[in-house]
Each structure stands twice: as structure tokens, then as C-alpha cells.
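Thread amino acids onto this structure.
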């Protein structure tokens, strides 16, 4: 199956990860054993994921009723599978606040199962 092309926000976030020397995340990682849900960015070794929600000021899918409810269900199931999911609004990707939160997470919790820090 072909991967979908990332949005501008996803491309921005991927570049920010590189600029901050974060471990390279997997993109569009299918995480659920039954549903076809995918995580925008994922670091499976530490069970961290980022979901980017754009269109917050243009009535995009993520902020309209059904899209919002579906995203809540997906994030809840990711948490039930053991993932820490940090949702980011498009504005938080653009202004750099989101990447700062991810850097902070790696500084606090980024050790893998062997105790090595992944950041």
C-alpha cells in the first residue's frame, strides 16, 4: 500500500525533528491490531506518538464534530495500547511550541528499555 503524501504541517514537523536531532520517527505507523488507524509520527521504542491536527481556524476535519470525535476515539485506543500521544494543533507546529514539547518529553522520558537515552 502506498503511503499518503504528508501535509505541509507534517513536513514541517519532520524537519523540526531533524533540526533538534531527535531520533527519526516512523510515519503513518499502524498501531491498532484491528482498526486501520495510523499515527502521524511514532517512536515505537519509547511508545511516543504525535498526532497533528491542522485546520483549527479553517474548520478543517479535525475540528468539526465527526472528525473530532473520531480523533478522540483513535487517541483513546492508542493510549489503551500503551502509547503516549501528544496531539499538536497546526499553529503549535508552525510556532515551534509542539517540537519544544517533544524535545522536553525526550529529555524527561526518552530512555529505551535498555536504559539508553534516545535523545
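Threaded sequence (119 positions):
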Amino acid at each position: 500500500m502506498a503511503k499518503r503524501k504528508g501535509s505541509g504541517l507534517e513536513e514541517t514537523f519532520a524537519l523540526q525533528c531533524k533540526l533538534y536531532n531527535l531520533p527519526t520517527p516512523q510515519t503513518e505507523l499502524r498501531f491498532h491490531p484491528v482498526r486501520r488507524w495510523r499515527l502521524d509520527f511514532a517512536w515505537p521504542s519509547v511508545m511516543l506518538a504525535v498526532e497533528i491536527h491542522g485546520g483549527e481556524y479553517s474548520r478543517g476535519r479535525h475540528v468539526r464534530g465527526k472528525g473530532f470525535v473520531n480523533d478522540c476515539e483513535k487517541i483513546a485506543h492508542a493510549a489503551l495500547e500503551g502509547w503516549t500521544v501528544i496531539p499538536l494543533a497546526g499553529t503549535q507546529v508552525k510556532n515551534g511550541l509542539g517540537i519544544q514539547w517533544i524535545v522536553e518529553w525526550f529529555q524527561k522520558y526518552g530512555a529505551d528499555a535498555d536504559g539508553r537515552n534516545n535523545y
